[in-house]
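Lab meeting, action items carried over

1. Structure of the two-component assembly. Owner: GW. Status: complete.
Input record:
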Amino acid sequence: MNESTPPALQESASRPPTAWELGSDRLFRTLTTLFSALTIALVVFIVLQISFTARPAIAQYGFGFLTTDTWDAGKGQFGIRPAIWGTLYSSILGVGLATILGVATAIFLTQDFLSPRVALVLENIVKLLAAIPSVVYGLWGIFVLIPLLRPVADALHQSLGWIPFFGTRLAGPGLLPAALVLAVMVLPTITAISRDALAAVHPRIREAAYGLGATRWETIFGVILPTASRGIYASVLLAFGRALGETMALAMLIGNNNEIRLSLFAPGNTLAALLANQFPEASRSEVPALMFAALVLLAITLAVNVLGTLVLASASRHVEVR
Amino acid sequence: MAQTPASPEPPVDLPSLERSLRSPRTLFSAFCSGVCGLLTVLALLPLFSVLVMLLYRGGTKVLTAGLTLFTELPPAAGMVGGGIGNALIGTLVVVGIATLISVPIGVLGGIYLAEFGPRTRLAETVRFMAKVLTGLPSVLAGLVVFAAIVVFTGFSALAGGLALAILMLPTVLITAEDALKMVPQRMREAAFGMGCTPTQTVWYVVLPTALPGILTGVMLAVARAAGETAPLLFTAFFSNYWMTARLNEPTPSLAVLIYNFSGSPFRNQQDIAWAASLVVVTLILIANISAQIYTARTKTR
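Predicted assembly:
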């Protein structure tokens, strides 16, 4: 028997790494650590940069900035109460409408109304809603939605004008078209997350309800929706966070008018729309005030989003425990 | 075997188990099903309206203008003809810059989260911050870049790209981490068994396997960035001229062009806004569909 091994096997397929390989390994790991830490640095930088630029305005206007109504760069008077009001009003209207439509769509997708293939197609169509950019929705609002709403709105104002919500005519841009477009834009968020929450409800639970003699909708209202409720709440909160910061469609549709009005047809303003409309032409004295408004917007959206993320995390834990 | 005596089964009253189709409970259920279906249709109505308008008004303009739409500059107020050539190039350049900035940071950060320190406190913080960034209103990304850079250098394609990169980063980071985590653990163990350093394992085994998933995230981020308008208003701004090779000048983009022309009283500019919208939505759909193709490829592996 030949004792010498063939030369190809003398060198083992595996060998310890060389010094260069070890060095480059350490370097690469450090590099990835730094790059991931960059994300934290970026968030900190965003908060600091906006606060820092807003500092002169914070010092000058203080808390009154949030509670006064005039925005007049000429007189140096800045207040964002109408913008905060408009942001909340339009977001609550839009998200409220989107919740009804979005949860209904999610139920329709998950509760065996459709064959799985049709449900999948429908799901992708809903996702398509999210793919269309804000500015295109704004364009659609200007050329389709507002002309469509105007006769209806004016008729409502004529006949039911004593109700504060119909207190004005729809002259063009206004709160209602803005809120409707907002509803369309946050609908995919609500549908997608609610759908996941509903689909995560174990079929056994539904079968048990059917076995007890519940009808399909008694099962949905009594068993499935309560079980999936945390996920649905999270979807609404995250949609609300998105609606608060939505910019272009609102800047194009809400009318850029700094007044607090209850009427659905009156033009208004939101924080994000104020920024988009005023910033490009802002004078030096106006920039800190706009940054102050940006800081308020950042604080509100961050709070809502963090809350939504936490609820969503607790929802998925809730499901895992079962 | 003991024969079980035929147990006296209680007679089942089958008709009582059936539910009358006219009972209020059944009727209520059917009513709810109808309402639910109706609401779903109502929810999708705007999408169809948008698509029809894009194809009708945008499509008409694309067909009548033909190639000149892509080779000419935007028309001035009241002028006929014109196109979106410079804006299309501008969008591609700005999104390209944003991709070049966000993808290396996002993928390398994702490698750390998935491979080197998945359970460290740093990783937990980074994940949380990435989620926070996902919810950042896009207009604020523009403001930050304006205050940090544009104030000193003026409007530029670079600043626009940077603003979009802020918005792309969380998507790239989160999807890269997810894609890397999908790689089976035994592949890593096999590489370690061969004597690979963790870096070699990542480069030669994990990254190539996770590549389709990572590309999915990149394409989704590109799709989102391509239609963003608000951050570009204060960073890239707009220009009615062709881009030069320099990236430090105001740069046009399709999104800002749509915004500028949306308020125009002139029919030609409105039509160009619709045509530009059609082009943007087409670009976004192409990016989204290629993302889904990559996803499908990951699943078949």
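2. GW to write a short summary for the group page. Key points so far: Chain A has twelve helices and two strands. The CA atoms of residues 204 and 226 of chain A lie 15 Å apart.
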